[in-house]
Amino acid sequence: MASDQDLVVETVRDILSGFEPFVLTPERPWDEGLWSALAEAGLTGVGLPEEAGGSGGELADAVAIVRTLASGAAAVPVAEQLLVAGPALVAADLDLPSPEEPLTVAVEGTVAAEPSDDGDGPGRFVLTGTATDVPWAGVARHVAVLATPPAGIEGAVLAVVDASGLTASSAVNLAGEPRGSLVLDGVGVPGALLTPARAATLRARYALTRAVQISAALEQVLAWTVQYAGERQQFGRPLGKFQAIQMELAQMAGEVTSTAALVDAAVQALGRGEDTVVLAAAAAKVRAGEAVERVAKLAHQVHGAIGFTQEYRLHHLTRRCWSWRDEAGTELAWSRTLGAALVAAGPDDVWPAFTAVV
Amino acid sequence: MSSNQLTLAPAPPSEAAERVRLEVREFLAQELAAGTFTTHVDTWLSGVDPEFSRKLGAHGWLGMTWPKEYGGHERTAQERYAVTEELLAAGAPVAAHWIADRQSGPNLLRYGTEAQRKEILPRIAAGECYFVIGMSEPDSGSDLASIRTRGVRNADGDFVVNGAKIWTSNAHHSHYGIVLVRTGPPGEGPRGKHQGLTQLLVDLSLPGISVNPIRILDGGHHFNEVVFTDVVVPGDMLLGTEGAGWHQVTAELAFERSGPERFLSTWPLLAEFGRRAAATGDPAQLAVLGRLSSRALALRQLSLRIAAALDRGELPDIPAALVKDMGTTFEQDVVDEVRRVVDVPASLDSPDPLGRALAEAQLHAPGYTLRGGTNEILKGIVARGLGLR
């Protein structure tokens, strides 16, 4: 990792050290204090161009921030803002809301966009329908909504919705992170048409973002589990001295390391702006989800009963990972996407298609 | 885990590697069309075809990264990696030269004398000289330091070798073996038996060597037992440093364990399955294809990073163990996952190429997680990397 990112990571860690992860409740659905501290330090605009109101910096810097916050179980919508909604709005030439206010993304649901002539100039749409599974619904001040375009037009409409007047349903994921719905009742908003490829890239960015978060969280889970196995004594010696435990930890290391390599390669493909990023993201998301399956199970097994309690820190990450693997497109959906793409060029071209993914 | 042990620098794709990849792909398509080979599973151990190996040598696709003075081509590890992948994916007959090109040649470059290099490396690069690995023994298995084959210096300074090596792939086609022998007493302590081991470069045509076949489950013959009875190995065929055999073997295993053959042995089955999924369009089959591919892509990224690290002169033995453990588990899972979503019985006599590929992959499968160190041993190495032992 370049030294620039080391510095970013150090800064985020310093800030994080003042904020312990907590159990999310309807009364306290996010870490508002942490968000303010990050925003004050300019970290909620990293990777977004300065001329759009961001803090500048590279994609790698934004990824480093997201990774650090994910491994710290931070309850803030930074990943959605820095890696998904923010870049999508910038790419579509839409105005970026102030990075100091939380921005999220909505890609699921039944939202339809119709062109509007509400007198506020061109690039206006009226959105009608329900956006579902919206991360940080009720917390984020703005939402980048991916909506169905008017009849006869391919692709999608990306629109920016001010969420302050909207009510979010109270659904949460397995970790208690808000994932509610937003009802859009003919609201007029700025928006832009996206080609099918651009819309697919937006969805892929979202999936890859969850894979990045999972990868970082699983690295932390592995580190905690190795540490615990070295400290916890049973039958007169540390757990880590038992061969059966060593085998489980080695398996976890394999899952974590191979996932990290693929996720990193997909992020680099994204950074290079490659067309294949949709498939690279699909592969990374599927791989990360499968890693969660094994790593979380083994981590809880090695931690024993204490790791199954709310008082212990492990669940802050394992519950998030169990959720994140289902979000931004399920493993089944992304594995079908990848499989279909591998055979799309013809029955004999699976290998060439495979080597072109990443 | 100390991150410096498992986190390797990324290996961005190079244009040169993509160019040679397409050249090899074109060559293989022509050879397949001409019928000079047919695709099979696990051909890097069972597909012996000296003529095919010589063709690869003539194209400059063997000894690719070695210096030109030894018949090499001074190309990058990435270019070599691309060639290796293409051959494995096509299920081409590459077993004759595989060990020599992958492992023995680099070993000679690193530890060999000038005379040894000059004599042998150009022949390997030409696809005409083949090697066996002489590590394991009937009673040693994964406990490699317990080997009992001895090399005793005689009055002329030559080594008199007695003992037996087992699981020597393609010894019956090979010209040399790099044989690990005990030349001195073990030292004190738990790691003491690592001392007193030496690698010898053994000409397999020497008197006193017999090669006995061991057949595997599908009836194929690539394994052998090689017995040494008072074999006189000239003193100048010592490889590297006398007594440093353990260290040398450890370095060699990083090359052996991390390559794409550790997750692409069953690619011909996956490709055949891809053909089926393309024909049926069955969402369940496409999902399995996608899921298995995501695992292979992850292993590939890790393997590429290890290749780049080896190229930089690093010794990433822990990530290499990890690739071998994860990769060979994947190769076995390919059989299980595919057979669950296709209505095709596995049979070597199947009229359906998918049925034949399933049968080949299944009958070879027990070997994937054994060869190159059992996965339990490899997990032990990873556990040591995690600081647990």
TrEMBL record, chain A:
> What terms describe the molecular function in GO for this protein?
acyl-CoA dehydrogenase activity; flavin adenine dinucleotide binding
Pfam families, per this entry?
Acyl-CoA_dh_1 (PF00441), Acyl-CoA_dh_N (PF02771)
* First and last residue of the signal peptide: none
Q: Where is the Acyl-CoA dehydrogenase/oxidase N-terminal domain?
A: 5-78
On whether Flavoprotein is a keyword of this UniProt record, the answer is yes
Q: Which family does it belong to?
A: Belongs to the acyl-CoA dehydrogenase family.
- Protein known as: Acyl-CoA dehydrogenase
Automatic annotation (TrEMBL), chain B:
Pfam families from the UniProt entry: Acyl-CoA_dh_1, Acyl-CoA_dh_M, Acyl-CoA_dh_N
In terms of superkingdom, the source organism counts as: Bacteria
Q: What are the residue boundaries of the Acyl-CoA dehydrogenase/oxidase N-terminal domain, all occurrences included?
A: 15-128
Q: Where is the Acyl-CoA dehydrogenase/oxidase C-terminal domain?
A: 288-386
Q: Does the keyword tRNA-binding apply?
A: no
Listed name of the protein? Alkylation response protein AidB-like acyl-CoA dehydrogenase
A Gene Ontology molecular function term for this protein is: acyl-CoA dehydrogenase activity
